[in-house]
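In this section we walk through a basic example: taking a raw amino acid sequence and producing a predicted 3D structure, encoded as discrete structure tokens. The instruction is simple. Fold the sequence below.
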Amino acid sequence: MRDVKNIVNIGTGDIIGSAFSAGFWFYLATLMNPGEFGELHYFISIVGIISYCVLIGSQNTITVYVAKKIPIQSTFNFISLIGVFLAFLILIFLFQRIDLGFLALGFVISNLVIGELLGKRDYRGYLKYILIQKILTPVFGLGFFFIFGPEYVIIGLAISYSAYLFRIIKNFKEIKIDFSLLNPRKGFIINNYMIALSGTFHGQVDKIIILPVLGAVLLGNYALALQIISLMIVLSFPHLRLAGILSIIIVFSPNSLILKPKLFK
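The resulting token sequence is shown next.
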């Protein structure tokens, strides 16, 4: 019965959160011209790639070690936040836009916190954080659009991730930074880092190529088409998403034989 509740919590956060996100982008697309919409997604894709470059402790890595009761999350948080600071400077230098740095911070802290929550099997907390962020996305994204203009949508998106900061601060207070935990596990950490980075490049590099080659208008239409596909997946194939959720619960169940100490250093 407990596992069923866990599935419901994660499934609710995943499906409702995706629907909220798709609805936000659909509505925003009706308010912006295709060129503005394409330029917005161009910058978001750049931030997405850079945020994963500085995210040393990927979401899956944190999930594994937290599930094994290894107090490594503050160490990962510290290193990743230093990386965000460097990314902040790079983005300001390249684009003269401070909002991109704040969005990179939001992407990074959300990945760190979600990884920890899944590792602790805190699926109710997962549901809470996902729904808060997804609800705040249209609140601040559209709010900043109507008040300040389309160029302020990104800062609104960045603010929607602010709830994750409280969890990061809590970790720093409760768990000390210990760099000695990294060296014995560097192989697994690097492997997961490269996997996460390659996946991000695969999902974002198309948008970065389309804008300079084919223009912002085409990218805007392409980005909208991707949102339509994402919404169709959420509405048409929820059982596939729940199957992935179930695999997480099985792998990190205390009674599972999959997560053995000998599998990970």
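Looking at the output, two observations stand out. DSSP finds eleven helices and no strands in the chain. Confidence is low (pLDDT under 50) at residues 238-244, 254-265. In the next section we compare this with other chains.
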